[in-house]
Amino acid sequence: RAKNEGRNTYRLHRSEMDVQARHHLSLETELRDMLERGDGLVMHYQPLFSRDSGQLKSAEALVRWQHPVRGLIPPGEFIPLAERSGLILPLGEQILDRVISDITRWQNEGQAPVPVAINLSAAQFWQAGFADDIADRFSAAGIPPELIIFELTESMLLNKHDQGMAILTALNERGFRIALDDFGTGYSSLNYLQNIPAHSLKIDRSFIVALDNNTRGSRAIIAAIASLARELGLIVVAEGVETQKQWDQLGEYAIDLIQGFYTARPMTADAFTTLLNTQHSAAIPQTDS
Ligand code: C2E
Ligand code: MG
Ligand code: MG
Ligand code: MG
Fold first, then answer.
1. Is the CB of 204 inside a 6 Å radius of any atom of ligand 1?
2. Do 178 and 150 touch, CB atoms closer than 8 A?
3. What is the pLDDT of residue 27?
4. Does the keyword DNA-binding apply (predicted)?
5. Counting atoms of ligand 1 from 1, which one is nearest the CA of 182?
6. What is the pLDDT of residue 286?
7. For all residues of the chain together, what is the average pLDDT?
8. Which of 41, 62, 153, 259 is the pocket-test mutation for ligand 1 (most atoms within 8 Å of CB)?
9. pLDDT given for residue 17 in this prediction
10. Which residue numbers in the chain have pLDDT < 70?
11. Considering every ligand atom, which ligand is closest to the CA of 179?
12. Would you state the pLDDT for residue 72?
């Protein structure tokens, strides 16, 4: 009996895997086709606000795939696929194209620009000549490097710390800024924060979520990361703030910027244009205090 069940379970599992594999195969083919046509990506922009003044300070560019049948596909469903199938470099190129064209539009319309953060995949970051190529690209587009923040994760530097630092330094020397994304989830030692040429640190959403449970642990970790980062001169960002309770609690720590659904969801470039226009009166939720 047990044997039979085992076999059935196995069979079910197998066929589920086949369905999944076929799904991925067709999605991969469609991703390849879309990248060849070069017409399926849209960037959404999520604002970051000052915790103290409520001012709009920057935005993170987040890619979506506008699929004719499946609708808007989130990056979690195709970035890992692109990374596995060697499509991440052309994908990364087209993401840069989209961001450059959106920023150019804001510049042409005379909007006071705010810095835009772009997520990098490891393969992009480790491309030979990356810092020079990217600097050429933005300078050809007339976009000052000070307007660009590159977001990368601790894990990208793992095992190749010295080479990674060299690239970060090169980016920094060319005027770009670096944000350490999803901080606290990787394996690197806090020690490397001392020397890394980063300008901001984004505390991972998982620590913010844990604030709701009022666990001493999560509060202690946020407090420690935030005060250490600020001591080291980094701008501290809390990612994934969803509730007023979280917003209120974060006021107790050395948090500079808030990014999350509580203040604003990622929005289309058009919606972000409107926000840029009204940024001085940008309404953000007020607490009772
Ligand atoms: P990330 O860089 O950590 O981006 C933040 C993610 O958290 C975004 O998800 C954003 O929509 C989501 N988020 C923001 N505030 C909240 C909140 O209050 N609650 C919750 N539950 N989520 C919130 P998204 O857009 O689905 O992106 C997921 C990940 O995909 C990103 O994580 C990043 O690692 C990757 N990604 C997105 N765009 C790009 C891109 O252009 N290039 C590369 N290489 N990776 C990208
Ligand atoms: Mg990010
Ligand atoms: Mg993040
Ligand atoms: Mg994340």
1. no
2. yes
3. 92
4. no
5. 3
6. 47
7. 89
8. 62
9. 64
10. 1-19, 21-22, 24-25, 188, 280-289
11. 2
12. 97
For residue 30, CA distances in Å to 37, 43, 59, 72, 177 come to: 10, 19, 29, 14, 34
> Does the CB atom of residue 119 touch ligand 1 within 6 A?
yes
* Cross-strand partners of 149: 117, 177
Quote the ligand 3 centre to 3 CA distance (angstroms): 45
* Residue identifier of the C-alpha nearest atom 7 of ligand 1: 240
User: Looking at this predicted complex, what is its ipTM?
Assistant: 0.98
Distance (Å) from CA 1 to ligand 1 centroid: 46
Residue bearing the CA closest to ligand 1, atom 33: 119
Whole-number Å distance, alpha carbon 9 to ligand 4 midpoint, is: 34
- Degrees (nearest 5) of the Cα angle 147, 150, 151? 135
Nearest-ligand number for the alpha carbon of 89: 1
Report the largest interatomic distance among the alpha carbons of the chain, rounded to a whole angstrom: 73
Q: What is the pLDDT of residue 21?
A: 67
What DSSP string runs through the chain?
-HHHHHHHHHHHHHHHHHHHHHHHHHHHHHHHHHHHHT--EEEEEEEEEETTT--EEEEEEEEEEEETTTEEE-GGGTHHHHHHTT-HHHHHHHHHHHHHHHHHHHHHTT-----EEEE--HHHHTSTTHHHHHHHHHHHTT--GGGEEEEEEGGGGTT-HHHHHHHHHHHHHTT-EEEEEEETSS---GGGGGT---SEEEE-HHHHHGGGGT-HHHHHHHHHHHHHHHHTTPEEEEE---SHHHHHHHTTS---EEESTTT---EEHHHHHHHHHTGGG---PPP--
Torsion-angle region of residue 159: left (phi > 0), alpha (psi -120 to 50) or beta?
A: left
Distance from the alpha carbon of residue 62 to the mean position of ligand 1, in angstroms: 6
- pLDDT computed for residue 289 by the predictor: 41
Give pTM, 2 decimals.
Answer: 0.90
